[in-house]
Design a protein that fits this description.
The structure is a single chain. This protein is α+β, with helices and mostly antiparallel strands. The protein has 2 domains: about 90 residues, Pleckstrin-homology domain (PH domain)/Phosphotyrosine-binding domain (PTB) (PH-domain like); about 50 residues. A hairpin with a 5-residue loop joins β3 and β4. The radius of gyration is 24 Å and the shape is elongated.
């Protein structure tokens, strides 16, 4: 990638960073786990008092499994996609939750935005097509956000295809 201080760098027409949505904040997660742990402990104690002591351990195991599932979900939320359109190139950079990055650079003149729309559920998939190849973009976005992103990206691609505009100074 080029440096931000490079004088030959073109100004972006469009730039977006797409991240997966997580509805539960870290504070909400902590509260949820405390409530779940408390309820599980109370229920486990009831079984322990009734003489079914092995059940008490399973209640703790449930809480541990829920915690582990949420931690995996939050770790996958570290993935993101960065899409930048300049007059001469379209750059898509995908970073996995492990931090591994892949980058594609395409000519915006030859790129077409393809949408797979389901009539009941809305926009399902969004692809950039160029020279017979497809690149999926924003697969983790919900349909409404995909539609908004597709509209903005379509406008940026149309502007890039028009070419540079000249400003007449008086």
């Amino acid at each position: 990638m080029t440096s931000d201080n490079d004088p030959n760098r073109e100004p972006p027409i469009f730039s977006a960073v797409l991240t997966p949505h997580r509805s539960l904040s870290p504070t909400g997660f902590l509260i949820f786990m405390m409530v779940l742990g408390g309820l599980s402990f109370v229920a486990g104690m009831a079984f322990l008092i009734a003489g079914a002591w092995p059940v008490f351990g399973f209640f703790g195991l449930d809480v541990l499994l829920v915690y582990w599932a949420f931690r995996l979900n939050y770790r996958s939320a570290r993935a993101y996609e960065q899409v930048t359109v300049t007059p001469s190139e379209l750059t898509v950079r995908k970073v996995t939750h492990h931090g591994r990055a892949q980058e594609w650079t395409l000519n915006p003149v030859w790129v077409r935005l393809h949408r797979d729309v389901h009539e009941e559920f809305g926009l399902q998939q969004l692809f950039l097509e160029s020279r017979g190849r497809r690149l999926s973009v924003g697969h983790f976005l919900p349909p409404q956000e995909k539609e908004s992103f597709a509209h903005a990206l379509s406008g940026a691609l149309a502007e890039a295809k028009r070419g540079p505009t000249r400003t007449v100074l008086k």
